Amino acid sequence: MPCESKGGRACCYAFIAYQTAYLKCHYPAEFYAALLTVFESQDTKVSNYVQDARSQGIAILKPSVNQSTDAFKIETEESIRYGLGSIKGLGEKAIQEILELRPFTDLSDFILRTTKSNVNKRSLNSLVFSGALDELAGSITNR
Question: Is the bond preceding 103 in cis, omega lying within 30 degrees of 0?
Answer without folding.
Answer: yes
